Amino acid sequence: MNFPKDFLIGSATAAHQVEGNNIHSDYWAQEQMPHSSFTEPSGIACDHYNRYEEDIRLMADAGLTCYRFSVEWARIEPEEGVFDEKETEHYRDVIRTCRKYGIEPIITLMHFTSPVWLIQKGGWEAESTVSYFERYASYIAEQYGNDVKYICTINEANMGLQLAAIAKRFRMMAEQAAKNAKKAEGTVQVGMNFEKMMENMKYAAMENAQVFGTPQPQIFVSSRTEEGDILVMRAHQVAKAAIKKIHPEIKVGLTLSLHDLQAVDEGGEAFVKKAWDEEFSHYVPYIEGDDFLGVQNYTRTLYDHTGQLPCPEGAELTQMDYEFYPEALEHVIRKVHEEFKGDLFVTENGVGIGDDTRRVAFIETALNGVSRCIDDGINVLGYCYWSFMDNFEWQKGFAMTFGLVAVNRETMERIPKESLYFLGNIRKA
User: Fold this and answer.
1) What are the tens digits of pLDDT across the range 344-380?
2) Any alpha helices (H) in 77-158, and if so which ranges?
3) From 3.30.870.10, 3.40.50.2300, 3.20.20.80, 3.40.50.1970, which CATH number describes the 8-428 domain?
4) Which pLDDT score is estimated for 209?
5) Are 380 and 329 contacting, i.e. CB atoms less than 8 angstroms apart?
6) pTM score, whole prediction
7) CB atoms < 10 A from the CB of 174, how many?
8) Which of 292, 298, 375, 390 is closest to 341 using CA atoms?
9) pLDDT digits 0-9 by tens, 113-129
10) In whole angstroms, how far apart are CA 78 and each of 85, 119, 147, 150, 286?
């Protein structure tokens, strides 16, 4: 496989999943509830907050050239309008450490978690969130704009609609039989625990009301309304404008969670078209002027004339209960390119699996597909494997192993896997 000299190859993390002790965020609050839907709390996570230099040095030593990570809004603005200078300086150190080791920092402003105060004010269905996010983006640009070239405003901006559709399907399945809960979880590219959520629903409503002032807080990964979906796009647009006003040279985009949607018969095409419009096409008018689009893909989804199908009989499944299918990334890049003509960046692609030889195979197949896309004239800027290390996979806790690096849960020792070095040496493959 061949890549341009400036093609970036690296890995990605999210602050809440690796840093630890994110005490001012909505997720932290929900993890502490007696009837939490989380399998376990994040706690110190991977202690990346204190060990970031060790981790970045490990990336560089392995041959990686970029690191996509998120700055945590709940750390930087723990109270409305109060920006924490110590935490601001922390992320400045992370960015400068990347530069020190020759790693290109790619920062994400919002990777699912929000400050508790934002959710108390209506969260991601409230008009006020647009201006709050604009102010936050301006602050980030002022603080770090001289040291970064790429900013992702919002991670997987389309996740709310995906979750709304899945929650609807899950409710129907749950009414039929509680045992079907597991099947629903495997249709979304994020760690969700729908079964436990249903068990705890009435208790969680009371506990949410105590913490957030409402029984149904609108966190970023809540089931989103159509109005909320557009509100997220507007938040992205004002954040982009705020960044560009201060540092017009910074490349700004957002990321989307995208499945490789495939029809297995003629009747399935209508379902594919509808699903792709919901997942991607209707966002195009809001991102046409962006500098790049972050493509995030993990698997495929099949449809026939009756609708969505389960994984094929005998298919290899990942720990997340979706199909091991690295070919999906190439298909998604080509599909996106038909409608979005700007630069693309693979900001997440990976596999939760115990056998690292299968992770190596996944990366090799996925990157061969990216290479073919570039050969065909599609401008892909880089590839970030998810994730740099085994981390806190949201409601599923620490059991999912996506990482290029294992983490000893007791000592926090980093244990590099062969896949880390395979990815770092991919240009020689």
Assistant:
1) 999 999 999 999 999 999 999 999 999 999 999 999 9
2) 85-100, 116-120, 128-144
3) 3.20.20.80
4) 93
5) no
6) 0.93
7) 17
8) 292
9) 999 999 999 999 999 99
10) 11, 12, 24, 24, 29
pLDDT value of position 196:
63
Segments making up each domain of the chain, as ranges: 8-428
User: Would you say 130 and 234 are in contact if contact means Cβ atoms under 8 Å apart?
Assistant: yes
Q: Which residues pair with 323 in a beta bridge?
A: 317
408: left (phi over 0), alpha (psi -120 to 50) or beta: beta
Dist CA 211 CA 269 (whole Å): 45
Q: From CA 381, how far away is CA 7, in angstroms rounded?
A: 5
pLDDT at 427: 82
- pLDDT score for 177: 47
Question: Hey, what's the torsion of the CAs at 196, 347, 42, 181, to 10 degrees?
Answer: 10
- CB half-sphere exposure, 297, CA atoms < 13 A: 33
The pLDDT of residue 290 is 98
Q: What is the pLDDT of residue 172?
A: 58
End-to-end Cα spacing for the chain: 7
DSSP 67-91: EEEE--HHHH-SBTTB--HHHHHHH
Place of tokens 């006020």: 128
Report, as ranges of residue numbers, the positions in the chain whose pLDDT lies below 50: 177
